[in-house]
Write a structure and sequence with these properties.
9-stranded mixed beta sheet; two-stranded antiparallel sheet; alpha/beta
Length: about 270
Amino acid sequence: MTSALIITAPGINCDLELAEAFHLAGAEPQLVHINKLMRNPSLIDNADLIGFPGGFSYGDAVAAGRIMANLMRATLYGALVEAIRRGVPIIAPCNGFQIAVQLGLLPGPIPGSDWPQTPPSPTVSLAQNTSARFIDRWVEFIVPSSTRCVWTKNLDTTPEGSCIPIAHGEGRFVPRDEETLQELEESGQIACRYGANDNPNGSVGDVMGICDASGLVFGLMPHPERFLRWTQHPQWTRLEQQTKVPLGLQMFNNAVEHAKQNNTSNCVEGTA
């Protein structure tokens, strides 16, 4: 059975939704508290997929995701990098995105470069929304044709289903400089965007989510785990496309399928 490791911590509140998403996609979710992982990082070695849930880890004290990211930088960075090297897809919605950026997993090293032995300094950030308010609504979801992200590539979207829920106060994507944004564009690391007229937080370049150079690590401000069924859509009674798989579940299906193929390849190599 394909296993999905979900890392929990005080203040995390979307772990059960993430577990349901992995379950519906055919994986077996396991929720593990960060304290247990820090005592035994080798638990990550058995994971086929990994999730950083959303919420308000450690109350978002100091800054959103900062405390949890610093704990993981000191204890779990190496184990997570090894997981990426062996092909494990990782998803980080909302607070998870903030954590992954400060942890050093996103945007990660440039294509063709190996991961550094120590966590790098962040080159992007998730700043306060330009409205200075918490925003909770559905927004337009666009996937660039050039993306290398295994989670969002080749999604089957419809006009009715090409939207996704957000809920955050610090989600404004800000790259270190224009060159950083250009590099992400050219390397296919922009995984998804807000609609041109539906950018809720002032993100530079309408960037909603990014991936690392491998396409495995995916951070985004929306919550795909909250769009697993058509009945979760705010206008579901008016939709005609409910026979198709909802947008959020498609992403988890993509990742679980990738994990299964990765396991098969690893088994064949091991046999050889």
